[in-house]
Design brief:
The complex is a heterodimer. Helices cover 72% and strands 1% of the residues of chain A. By secondary structure, chain A is mainly alpha-helical. In chain A, strand 1 and strand 2 form a beta hairpin. Chain A starts with a helix and ends with a helix. By secondary structure, chain B is mostly helical. A two-stranded antiparallel sheet of chain B has the order 1-2. In chain B, strand 1 and strand 2 form a beta hairpin. The chains are: A mainly alpha, B mainly alpha. At the A-B interface, helix 2, helix 3, strand 1, helix 5 and helix 8 of A face helix 3, helix 6, helix 7, helix 9 and helix 10 of B.
């Protein structure tokens, strides 16, 4: 059983030691904020009945990752499950379910570290769920074919987004060069993502035929959908625009990052984020990184909020 | 059947097993943080951290090399750090000729790569030890005391409980697929890749339906037993004097590791 755990999980479950302290802490803060919002939302919308349901669903995702199919020779396709969880349970519950999966994998099976768990949560439980649900909503549920194309695109892009943020975290920590890690990770996951997309699409199609009432009954309503579409679109745009740029011209992106104060000497001294005797979080470099990250997040949140406000007012007029 | 693959707890009695789970979780995370804070090439610091780990192993009653023997799980991901060997600028350490390609391993690259490997390897051993000496319900109780949101702890508790059942369900589904996938020698079986993917997807869908039905039954059974939204435990988990002492001793040891690593550089 052990080898199976590796194949697909290898590249996205970051172990301890691969990320520096500043990156780990920023990821933990972002993950904690998102999970906090998800808990708040789920508590408001669902009753105590949902807790056993979400627990069993988390066990389902974990178990479903063991379902494989042979591609060629010894390689096989597996499921990660972010998009499936989001489509089947809705985005907030999907985030909590995927978080439980990532926490158990790290805590009990050492698939992913503890200090870097914030990053693993962000990539596999949060970003992949947001992208999976948002892109699924873009295509909507009008016709069967469009819906299935939506599920396929949502699950492929959710894997790509998770792979991209993993590469960026490795790069920010000085563990890998940008010009190598981005094309390598995106290339591998373009293939892994197809396996994910095929399984997810077939699984959703199966459940829709057998028990159509079970696939997120609230997903058909327009409430909240636009925000998810906007958030997912922003993430996908960033991934699609920056991947070729980072692959073809890593120095350019690094130059921009340094000019923005986003990364200070990432390639030359990432572990001296604790320069000699300074405390880690108080060092000038980590503060600038942290502030830049925070500003970036605020900009993204602002753009998303702006888009959803505009779309909301258009919706009222129309 | 395969419960041993999921339950990493080693049921023996030792001073580490008896320690308050909160202390164990905190010290594990602090140990990993300490490794992350050690600078590249701080071999003295890494050596001392390894010594701390061996002491913990001795107190666990599992043998002083217990975690070392289990620690291969972290190695595959080391591939992700391989590129750092070539991408850091610096004097060449070793040049490999690959046809027309010339790959140069630089000195700072090798230093960073080895440091990342050692950090990763030390940290994963601490995590292995934590789950080997702490029962899972105690671990969850500790997380709750350490302010993890209750709803998330409950989800994790349920998930862990049903992990065994659902993986058994997967094994049954897979056995059923294998039983129906006979192939004559010398022929190609199983249809196209697309077809195989569709079968795997249908299995995942089937598993989803069975899981939902099971969660309905679980909920009814739990209501019948008086569930009111909270999992209760009989274990009081009071910090004793020994727990505080171990916590203080571990923190001082880690501070010594950090100090030694910086003075020896």
């Amino acid at each position: 059983m052990r080898p199976e755990f590796f194949i697909n999980r290898l590249y996205l479950h970051i172990p301890d030691g691969m990320l520096n302290v500043a990156t780990s802490i920023i990821c933990w803060v972002l993950a904690a904020i998102l999970i906090g919002i998800a808990i708040y939302k789920v508590r408001g919308e669902l009753g105590e009945r949902q807790i056993p349901l979400m627990g069993v669903m988390a066990a389902f995702i974990f178990a479903a990752q063991m379902i494989n199919f042979t591609v060629i020779g010894g390689t096989s396709g597996h499921l990660i499950g972010g998009a499936l969880a989001a489509i089947a349970l809705g985005p907030w519950a999907g985030m909590l379910v995927m978080s439980a999966v990532v926490i158990i994998q790290g805590l009990v099976f050492q698939d992913g570290g503890l200090l870097v768990m914030g990053a693993n949560l962000l990539n596999m439980a949060l970003i992949s769920t947001i992208v999976g649900f948002g892109i699924y909503k873009v295509f909507g549920t009008r016709s069967w074919k469009v819906r299935m194309v939506g599920v396929f695109a949502a699950s492929w892009l959710s894997v790509m987004a998770a792979a991209f943020s993993t590469s960026i975290q490795l790069w920010l920590s000085g563990t890998a060069g940008l010009g190598i890690v981005v094309p390598a990770m995106m290339g591998i996951h373009a293939l892994i993502g197809i396996g994910e997309a095929l399984i997810t699409t077939a699984a959703v199609a199966f459940v829709l035929r057998a028990r159509p009432d079970l696939i997120d009954p609230n997903a058909g309503k327009s409430r909240g959908g636009r925000g998810w579409i906007a958030a997912a679109s922003v993430i996908v745009l960033v991934v699609l625009l920056l991947t070729p740029f980072a692959s073809a011209n890593p120095d350019g992106l690094e130059r921009v990052a340094i000019d923005l104060g986003f990364i200070d000497k990432a390639q030359s001294a990432p572990y001296s984020v604790i320069p000699d005797y300074e405390l880690p979080v108080l060092g000038a470099t980590s503060w600038s990184t942290f502030l830049a990250g925070l500003i970036g997040v605020l900009i993204v949140v602002g753009v998303v909020a702006g888009i959803s406000l505009i779309r909301k007012s258009q919706g009222r007029e129309g | 059947m395969h419960a041993s693959a999921f339950d990493r707890y080693r049921a023996i009695d030792s001073s580490l097993h008896r320690l308050d789970p909160r202390v164990k979780v905190l010290v594990t995370v602090l140990f990993i943080l300490s490794n992350a804070l050690l600078p590249d090439g701080a071999w003295g610091g890494f050596g001392l951290a390894f010594a701390v780990l061996i002491i913990a192993n001795l107190y666990s009653g599992l043998g002083w090399l217990f975690t070392l023997k289990q620690s291969y799980v972290a190695l595959p991901f080391a591939l992700a750090a391989v590129t750092v060997l070539f991408s850091l600028p610096g004097p060449a350490l070793w040049t490999v000729e690959l046809g027309s390609w010339q790959v140069v391993i630089t000195q700072p690259g090798a230093l960073r790569f080895l440091s990342i490997l050692v950090r990763s390897w030390l940290s994963v051993q601490a995590a292995i030890l934590l789950v080997a000496v702490t029962r899972f319900p105690d671990l969850l109780h500790a997380l709750r005391h350490l302010k993890m949101p209750g709803i998330l702890v409950s989800i994790i508790a349920f998930m862990y409980r049903y992990l065994f059942l659902l993986t058994d369900e997967v094994l049954r589904l897979r056995r059923a697929r294998e039983a129906r996938s006979a192939v004559l020698p010398g022929t190609k079986g199983g249809g196209s890749v697309l077809w195989r993917a569709k079968i795997a997807g249908s299995m995942a869908g089937q598993l989803f339906l069975r899981s939902i039905e099971r969660s309905d039954r679980i909920y009814s059974a739990m209501l019948a037993r008086g569930y009111a939204g909270q999992l209760l435990t009989l274990n009081p988990h009071v910090m004793k004097r020994a727990d505080w002492l171990v916590l203080a001793a571990s923190i001082s040891l880690l501070i010594i590791v950090q100090a030694a690593a910086r003075f020896s550089l």
